[in-house]
Amino acid sequence: MNLSLLKLHTKTIVLLTLFFTSLIMYTFSLGALKPIKLIDWFDVLGEGCINLMIMVWIFFTMISRPKGKVTHLLISGLAIMQLSMMLDFLDEFIHYPQASAWISTIESLPAPIGMIMMSIALYYWHQEQITLNAQLIKKERFYREHSLSDYITGLNSVEYMKNQITREINTNTEEQGFSVIMLDVCKFDTFNRQFGDLQGNKLLREFANLILMNIRDTDLACRFAADRFIILLPHTHQQTAEEIAHQIQASISHLAYKPGRTSQAVYHQFLACIYQYQQGDDYSILIDKLNQNMLQTKLSKIKNLAA
């Protein structure tokens, strides 16, 4: 059970607790406790279970959804229904004088209001699901059509990237140009040895998400090797590619990844090299030059650390 979303509803929990505590205190101030022999314990059991179940529904709503219109409507509707059920439950224990008999009269009024709010929330929730399903179908169609994706990161595979770079070479002109970024994870093998392949795969997925967040809609990212990524930037010259590479590196360096249940964050860095397409290059030449540039980048870093 994931309780992380519960923190987002702290204010709501406090308000509900204060409201229902005040309600109980107020109702007891209006009347007096019934003698035990007059209490219908079957009604107490039934109405008590209903109150408990509504609280359970509110709890599961909070741990299942972030804050938002639908969530607020659901919780508000359930809370208003709880108001009716709570008054009905307290009525089993409290005898109200004639002057306070109105509270027994109105105890059933909040329930239909709460049901209406929940119905509206369920309608909006249904609309949410339609949108999400459409996005999933679109994503599924994309992968089915290309069927060339890396199963760990969800990025494009090397083969698909090769086809796209080759296509870019064949259709490119000298005026348009394009650039390619190669990214290499520093000390990824050390991380894998320390925390295992499962955590390594999760970390790669986090890297992939950050890369996708920092590239443009026209750019294309792939997992080139175990700890290496390639990004194709159509109609992009080196200066712009360097800016994007720097943004990705900055984003990765601030990723506080916590393996397993540890609270100790592990930080990583990406080495980046950029190559701008030159007339006459083919895919093999381009990749060879990128690999050479990455090797030089690694050697330069080692020399800087040694110095």
Describe the structure.
The chain has 10 helices and 6 strands; from the N terminus they run αβααβαααβααββαβα. The model has no long low-confidence stretch (mean pLDDT 88). Helix 1 packs parallel to helix 3, helix 2 runs antiparallel to helix 3 and helix 7 crosses helix 8. With 307 residues, the chain is α+β, with helices and mostly antiparallel strands.
The percentage of residues in β strands lies in 5-15%
Q: What proportion of the residues is helical, as a percent range?
A: 55-70%
Low-confidence stretches: none
Radius of gyration using CA atoms only: 30 Å
How many helices? The count is 10
Global geometry: elongated
Overall SS class: alpha+beta
How many beta strands in the DSSP annotation? Answer: 6
Largest sheet: 4 strands, antiparallel
Distance between the amino and carboxyl termini: 50 Å
Strand order of the largest sheet: 4-5-3-6
Mean pLDDT: 88
What string gives the helices and strands in order? HEHHEHHHEHHEEHEH
Descriptive key words:
single chain, 307 residues, alpha+beta, 4-stranded antiparallel β-sheet, two-stranded antiparallel sheet, 10% strand, elongated
Task: Give the secondary structure arrangement, pairings included.
Blueprint: H1 10-30, E1 32-33, H2 41-64, H3 69-90, E2 94-95, H4 102-106, H5 110-146, H6 158-171, E3 178-185, H7 188-195, H8 197-213, E4 220-225, E5 228-234, H9 238-253, E6 270-276, H10 283-306
Antiparallel strand pairs: 1-2, 3-5, 3-6, 4-5
Helix pairs in contact: 1-3, 2-3, 3-5, 7-8
